[in-house]
Design goal:
This protein has helices at about 15-25, 65-75, 85-95, 160-170, 225-235, and strands at about 5-10, 30-35, 40-45, 50-55, 75-85, 100-105, 110-115, 125-130, 150-160, 175-180, 185-190, 195-200, 205-215, 240-244. Helices cover about 25% and strands about 40% of the residues. It is of the alpha/beta class.
């Protein structure tokens, strides 16, 4: 079985800031997206690293989960997604680890999914999904021309229980432990996907996403890029570090 850190999903009431930041400045290009029950989602891919997904509610009772999230937190990171080749085996491993998944839906052969509650997943929702094939879809008209290509180098997530988080992301979700110290650990997945875990006590639900890091595939970010990134990222509830 294969498990891959596929994307970081951000919930937002409006998509424009996300398109401008992750597409116009950070060079993300359209991958896939469509309407689902209660929300619309779309994903951008980068020169390396995970994808970014933007989600926005579209109304009706099925939108309640995302509307509650936005009412409580505003625009913010919502979940990590891991694509798996065998979700039945993944669910066995999750339960053997002592976690009961929620929102298990195996009815659609094209997209089977389950979730780990933030209380069990160190402060963030984790979605595991088995996808038959990518969705064929046209990019939204609001998506700007992509800026220079960039790599999505790192997700840094702070956790109260570092040892437990390392075990979850390595033993259950197949991350390769690259560094493992007393205060930090780093795990990788194929394609330049890297997650840094940092010990920090007192976080709600035992963890919180701290920041994401991007670097230009060639050249450097300008001062204007950095200023605009900070502005847009603040409105999306995420801290973006630019290197190079």
């Amino acid at each position: 079985m294969t498990t891959i850190l596929d994307h970081l999903s951000i919930g937002t009431p409006a998509l424009t800031d996300g398109w401008q930041l992750f597409g116009g400045i950070l060079g993300g290009t359209w991958y896939e997206g469509e309407n689902s029950a209660g929300f619309w989602w779309g994903q951008l891919k980068f020169a390396a690293g995970p994808k970014i997904e933007l989600m926005t509610p579209t109304g009706g009772p099925d939108a309640a989960f995302l509307e509650r999230f936005l009412a409580a937190r505003g625009a913010a990171p919502h979940h990590f997604n891991f694509l798996v080749t065998d979700i039945a085996d993944t669910l066995v491993r999750i339960r053997a680890f002592g976690i009961e998944p929620v929102g298990v839906n195996l009815a659609d052969p094209a997209w089977k999914e389950a979730f780990l509650h933030p209380r069990d997943a160190h402060g963030i929702v984790i979605q595991v999904a088995q996808q038959d094939s990518p969705v064929v879809s046209e990019p939204p008209r609001e998506l700007p021309e992509p800026g220079p290509p960039a790599r999505f180098d790192l997700i840094e997530h702070h956790v109260g229980d570092l040892d437990g988080a390392v075990r979850l992301f390595s033993e259950v979700l197949d991350g390769q432990v690259d560094k493992n110290g007393a205060e930090t650990a780093e795990l990788t997945w194929p394609g330049g996907k890297r997650l840094r875990l940092v010990r920090e006590e007192g976080l709600p639900l035992g963890g919180a996403l701290h920041h994401v890091r991007f670097s230009r595939a060639a050249g450097a970010f300008s001062a204007a890029d950095r200023e605009r990134t900070a502005e847009l990222a603040s409105r999306l509830g995420v801290t973006v570090e630019l290197t190079g």
